[in-house]
């Protein structure tokens, strides 16, 4: 028996457990670049349009913060690498983090890994299985992306430079997630640390890309490497091997940490609690607040930082559009019709709404985590009703996103208002635009509650699949010309845009709220009738 004994069966088990969520991640992220080749040709049909876009974005720091440096937007390949390279790498990184944590630290949380470890399973088998599955998915996304671009008629060298660059970013964050899984005792903390790493990487890249004198700083962020490889321009093929080397080094650190801790424990030991519980823990809501408050605080800090940064960039966004009337119409349709700056702000708060949905699903699935960890059953055995216990967690899926969107709206309005000299109006405007995102956020969380009530075994991957589909359709559906019936699947498509000169239609919000109430109530009913665990 060696440290890797049992790795093969664990890989097969992981693939079986992820047979729903992993193909969705792979297909959605792989097909986006190739599907936008024709969209580019329609949006910028003439060389003058393409040159206008290129000249407007090449030296615009506001645009560089969002999308990275615009090296050459006069070709479909250069535009795709600029427009989608960063964000696809970001989503691949998130996929890798969730996958590794789910098959390592989360397995320890539930006690399953200790049970397997008592059999013929080596100490490194679980980590290896998680790394192989997440890393393999990252590479597969890169290969399919490259093949799709080649099939769309783009040069093979540039297509594989971009695809492998994206895969390399996924491999690096696969290794980072392997490290964070060794540091803490709980999967939520491991995910939180790894996501903080992604956030730091994004901010480092944003600073480097938007600061001419410090452009080298971007090389410190793996998220910047797909664009720094300059696909379809210079095709720096050595960037992908660089990512592999970094991933191997970081993964070696993770393997070195594994034998330095006990199974179920983290390298950072948890502090013992007080001898007597405070009175606030005498109710289900008090317990839920204790479990949820750290996550809510971390998200709130992140929303403040992003709100101020993106709000302060609003005045420089016009360079993103160029002179193409078709692009102006699409951008206006995404974020409003009264001015490009207003459209940008509405698009930004739309992104905050999607991030709020991620938090809402995390808050909803916390009750499933407590259930699988065996913590729910003792609480319910103490006379707490199932409805009360589940509702205490769902409160945070309702109130938490509202708090985050208020923070986002105020922060973005503050960041823009200081530059525009119209602080009061900008804060009220962005705050209103943020709050109308709430029904869509609640609808996504309600679907997660419905899945937890009736399909608990697949509720976690299925809930994230719902989030992924809703976000991808809302972000990229209008640009690639999806049919309206497909766009209607995403609740974020139905959110009205609050812009001066437009009529506010509350009907979609009422429908979304109705769907939320029905789905959440049905999920609670299902939870009430099924067995715990």
From TrEMBL:
<keyword id="KW-0472">Membrane</keyword>
<feature type="transmembrane region" description="Helical">
    <location>
        <begin position="435"/>
        <end position="455"/>
    </location>
</feature>
<feature type="transmembrane region" description="Helical">
    <location>
        <begin position="296"/>
        <end position="314"/>
    </location>
</feature>
<feature type="transmembrane region" description="Helical">
    <location>
        <begin position="81"/>
        <end position="100"/>
    </location>
</feature>
<feature type="transmembrane region" description="Helical">
    <location>
        <begin position="238"/>
        <end position="258"/>
    </location>
</feature>
<keyword id="KW-1133">Transmembrane helix</keyword>
<keyword id="KW-0812">Transmembrane</keyword>
<feature type="transmembrane region" description="Helical">
    <location>
        <begin position="193"/>
        <end position="218"/>
    </location>
</feature>
<feature type="transmembrane region" description="Helical">
    <location>
        <begin position="343"/>
        <end position="362"/>
    </location>
</feature>
<feature type="transmembrane region" description="Helical">
    <location>
        <begin position="120"/>
        <end position="144"/>
    </location>
</feature>
<protein>
    <submittedName>
        <fullName>ABC-2 type transport system permease protein</fullName>
    </submittedName>
</protein>
<feature type="transmembrane region" description="Helical">
    <location>
        <begin position="156"/>
        <end position="181"/>
    </location>
</feature>
<feature type="transmembrane region" description="Helical">
    <location>
        <begin position="507"/>
        <end position="527"/>
    </location>
</feature>
<feature type="transmembrane region" description="Helical">
    <location>
        <begin position="462"/>
        <end position="487"/>
    </location>
</feature>
<feature type="transmembrane region" description="Helical">
    <location>
        <begin position="394"/>
        <end position="415"/>
    </location>
</feature>
<feature type="transmembrane region" description="Helical">
    <location>
        <begin position="20"/>
        <end position="40"/>
    </location>
</feature>
């Amino acid at each position: 028996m060696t440290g890797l004994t049992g790795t093969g069966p664990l890989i097969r088990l992981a693939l079986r457990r992820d047979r729903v969520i992993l193909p969705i991640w792979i297909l959605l992220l792989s097909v986006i670049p190739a599907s936008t080749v024709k969209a580019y040709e329609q949006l910028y049909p003439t060389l003058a349009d393409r040159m206008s876009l290129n000249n407007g974005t090449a030296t615009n720091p506001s645009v560089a913060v969002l999308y990275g440096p615009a090296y050459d937007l006069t070709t479909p390949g250069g535009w795709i690498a600029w427009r989608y390279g960063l964000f696809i790498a970001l989503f691949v990184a998130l996929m890798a983090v969730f996958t590794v944590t789910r098959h390592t630290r989360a397995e320890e949380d539930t006690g399953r890994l200790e049970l397997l470890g008592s059999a013929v399973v080596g100490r490194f088998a679980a980590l290896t299985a998680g790394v192989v599955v997440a890393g393999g998915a990252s590479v597969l996304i890169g290969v399919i992306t490259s093949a799709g671009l080649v099939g769309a008629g783009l040069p093979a060298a540039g297509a594989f430079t971009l695809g492998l660059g994206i895969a390399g970013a996924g491999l690096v964050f696969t290794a980072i997630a392997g490290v964070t899984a060794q540091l803490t005792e709980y999967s939520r903390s491991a995910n939180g640390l790894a996501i903080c790493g992604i956030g730091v990487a994004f901010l480092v890249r944003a600073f480097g890309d938007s600061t001419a004198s410090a452009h080298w700083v971007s090389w410190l962020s793996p998220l910047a490497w797909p664009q720094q490889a300059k696909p379809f321009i210079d095709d720096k093929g050595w960037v992908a091997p660089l990512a592999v080397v970094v991933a191997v080094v970081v993964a070696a650190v993770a393997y070195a940490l594994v034998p330095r801790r006990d199974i179920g424990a983290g390298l950072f030991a948890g502090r013992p609690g007080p001898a007597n519980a405070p009175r606030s823990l005498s109710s289900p809501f008090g317990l839920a607040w204790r479990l949820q408050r750290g996550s809510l605080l971390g998200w709130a800090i992140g929303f403040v930082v992003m709100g101020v940064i993106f709000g302060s960039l609003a005045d420089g966004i016009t360079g993103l559009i160029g002179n193409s009337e078709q692009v102006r119409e699409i951008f206006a349709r995404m974020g409003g019709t009264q001015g490009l700056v207003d459209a940008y702000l509405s698009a930004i708060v739309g992104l905050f709404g999607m991030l709020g949905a991620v938090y809402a699903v995390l808050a909803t699935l916390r009750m499933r985590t407590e259930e699988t960890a065996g913590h729910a059953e003792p609480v319910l055995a103490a006379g707490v009703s199932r409805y009360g216990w589940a509702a205490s967690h769902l409160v945070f899926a309702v109130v938490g996103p509202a708090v985050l969107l208020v923070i986002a709206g105020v922060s973005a309005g503050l960041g823009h208002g200081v530059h525009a000299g119209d602080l009061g109006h900008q804060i009220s405007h962005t705050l209103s635009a943020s709050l109308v995102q709430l029904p869509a956020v609640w609808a996504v969380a309600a679907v997660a509650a419905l899945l937890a009530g009736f399909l608990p075994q697949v509720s976690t991957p299925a809930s994230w699949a719902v989030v992924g589909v809703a976000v991808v359709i809302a972000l990229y559906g209008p640009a690639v010309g999806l049919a309206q019936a497909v766009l209607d699947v995403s609740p974020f498509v139905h959110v009205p845009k609050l812009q001066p000169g437009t009529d506010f239609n509350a009907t979609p919000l009422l429908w979304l709220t109705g769907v939320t109430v029905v789905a959440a109530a049905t999920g609670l009913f299902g939870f009430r009738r099924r067995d715990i665990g």
